[in-house]
Amino acid sequence: MVGQLEQLLGQLDALRVRALEELEPINSSADLEEWDTRYLGRNRGELKSLSSVMPKLTKEERPVVGQRINAVKTALERHLQEKREELKQRELLLALERERIDVTLPGRALPVGKMHPLSRTILEVTEIFARMGFSVVQGLEVEDDYHNFQGLNIPTDHPARDMQDTFWVSPEQILLRTQTSPMQIRTMEQSEPPVRVVVPGKVYRNEDIDATHEAMFHQIEGLLIDEVCTMADLKGCLERFAHEMFGPERRVRFRGSYFPFTEPSAEMDISCGLCDGKGCRSCKYSGWLEILGSGMVHPQVLRNVGYDPKKYRGFAFGMGVERIAMLKYGIGEIRLFSGNDLRFLRQL
Ligand code: 2NL
């Protein structure tokens, strides 16, 4: 009987040695789980098989064998747990190595946007006038008939008031502004002279669309009101603008014109930059390009805003931003500005 007990304990010790020997070289989770089932498995595990002799043992033998079984089991479980931990750490390190980030690689360049040519033109023009003491104001695109027409001395029968040309929001009352002047009227209504403002913004006209006309376009208007102001101030100021915008080599000329809100009125041309005034296809063989309209503010407009025309006078001007940009950058098609075609936008 004693021999049998010794043999059983010896088998348990041998099992422990063999199990630990086999555990040592294991380096994958799959092999480890297989080892676990083989030795510690509840159904067919080797330790379980050896334990099955327990019922055949005597009362004295049972606790001796039971303790040995438990000791072997505890030892195997402890080593299994250590191995699991070790494999987990190894796999983590491998994953870190695999997903390593090379911080020395150059970053990916982000696409950088740039200003739209019309925004840039507006900025260039307003900056030139800002250097001459003008401030920039902006206003609403939805206006009323008074500020867009009546206040500006545009009579009821003027062609600009034609129902066909104006986008009306409510009949004969609310409209999409056809020029930025309503904001200048509002500026004068709200403050006393001296006034020096430029007003850039969108304007709307119900026009037939072609290469040089769109229903929505941009304007910059300017207004100066003071006690002393003459046509010479107008000419000097606008010539300076032309030279800063297009270059000092360009010549300017003024031609008499007519606007209901200015008297006298004049249009300003600059010499053609392509032929230097000799005449070419671009300037329709005239040597000159029209860039803006201007004039001395009509006394009726001054009265409309509550200014005394005997005390104050001023000049005003207006230009189309698309036209200025087309002349400056040599663009022949107005619809490119609103087309959002990157091939066009990237060129400028
Ligand atoms: C053009 C001509 C012009 C004005 C706009 C103006 C504004 C007030 C009073 C008087 Cl509040 N005048 N603006 C004056 C002359 C010409 O624009 O051809 N624009 C594209």
- Proportion of β residues? 15-25%
Order of the strands making up the biggest sheet: 1-5-6-10-9-8-7
CATH architecture of the largest domain: 2-Layer Sandwich
SS summary, helix count? 11
Total strands: the figure is 10
By CATH, the superfamily of the largest domain comes out as Bira Bifunctional Protein, Domain 2
Spatial extent as radius of gyration: 46 Å
Major sheet: size, sense and barrel closure? 7 strands, mixed
SSE string: HHHHHEEHEEHEEHEEEHEHH
- For the record, give the distance between the C-alpha atoms at the N and C termini, rounded to a whole number: 104 Å
Under CATH at level 1, the class of the largest domain stands as Alpha Beta
Hetero groups in this structure are: 2-{3-[(4-chloropyridin-2-yl)amino]phenoxy}-N-methylacetamide
Which of globular, elongated, flat, extended, rod-shaped describes the shape? rod-shaped
Count of folded domains:
2
Look at the structure and give the mean pLDDT: 91
Low-confidence stretches: none
* CATH topology heading of the largest domain: BirA Bifunctional Protein, domain 2
Helix content: 40-55%
Query: Helix- and strand-based class?
Result: alpha+beta
What this model shows, in words?
- The chain is α+β, with helices and mostly antiparallel strands.
- It folds into two domains: 2-98; 117-347, BirA Bifunctional Protein, domain 2, CATH 3.30.930.
- It has eleven helices and ten strands.
- The strands form two sheets. It has a seven-stranded mixed beta sheet with strand order 1-5-6-10-9-8-7, sandwiched between helices. The protein has a three-stranded antiparallel beta sheet with strand order 2-4-3.
- Helix 1 (2-23) packs parallel to helix 4, helix 2 (29-40) packs antiparallel against helix 4 and helix 5 crosses helix 10 (321-329).
- The termini are far apart.
- The mean pLDDT is 91.
- The structure holds 2-{3-[(4-chloropyridin-2-yl)amino]phenoxy}-N-methylacetamide (2NL).
- 2-{3-[(4-chloropyridin-2-yl)amino]phenoxy}-N-methylacetamide binds at residues 152, 181, 184-185, 219, 221, 223, 259, 261-262, 293-295, 297, 301, 316-320.
